[in-house]
């Protein structure tokens, strides 16, 4: 996949035709985003010789410029977004920073300068609610008219639903923050993930017979609600089953928020200082205060049995994700 991180250097005039582009924030690369990408790939690659499937998105969320106080929690880092789109088969990823200059671009200028002159598109795929240009004044109706004038086809994808909800990044964030990570994962099309370094803890897990690694998660990302989760953890190219507690250890009168993970059967090297990627599979229970350390130890044994059963039923993580 070719990655272009600047609109100034963008020039796809030499890319094979048809040049089919989809645009959006793609902040979760969830099922609705994946639908847009699949439609783009289908239109670009259905004939030989194959054309060029292009995704135009941003390295940062537009609200980080337009309304910083309202910028939503992240669901993916920009590098992980690029990895997922690459593995879906995208040919060109255009992922510049969203800047005040981009925010000020009118819909007319966006179409003329970016889509027509720089990308030379033949076909555009967007979601039913896509808006763009200064103050969000561009919409699918505008694009339909622009496409007729500029001679590119416009394909508008319908909403994607899961159970009774429309799949959206907003809904996925809500589910994660409610602890409903299993349903969030279904809407994402993969388990929700967080990465972070391990740090020194109090050693209480070892004393209880459940040695844990304490992690630090970037607070700019959506963090699951406090509780105990069945997780899978990517470490050194291998996936380990485990369970994670997110909370403040109320049994020990804790006040500091700390995610900590227990890896089943792990006997490798010291984890302190290493980065872990945690995939949240299912919430087992809420965090609560126990009468004693012994009562907590007994409950952790139950949690481990439950977590192992959940992970066995779900199968392993696809490392291609």
Q: Count of helical segments? A: 10
Strand count: 14
| Structural shape | elongated
Largest sheet: 6 strands, parallel
Content-based structural category: alpha/beta
Low-confidence stretches: none
CATH class of the largest domain: Alpha Beta
State which percent range the strand residues make up.
Answer: 15-25%
The whole-angstrom Rg is 23 Å
Number of domains: 2
Helix content: 25-40%
Question: What's the order of the H and E elements?
Answer: EEHEHHEHHEHEEEHHEHEEEEEH
Across the major sheet, the strand order is 1-4-3-2-5-6
**CATH-defined fold name of the largest domain:** Rossmann fold
Oligomer: single chain
Mean pLDDT equals 92
Q: How far apart lie the N and C ends?
A: 16 Å
Quickly give the CATH architecture of the largest domain. 3-Layer(aba) Sandwich
Classified in CATH, the superfamily of the largest domain is HUPs
List its traits.
single chain; 321 residues; alpha/beta; Rossmann fold; Elongation Factor Tu (Ef-tu), domain 3; six-stranded parallel sheet; six-stranded antiparallel barrel; 10 helices
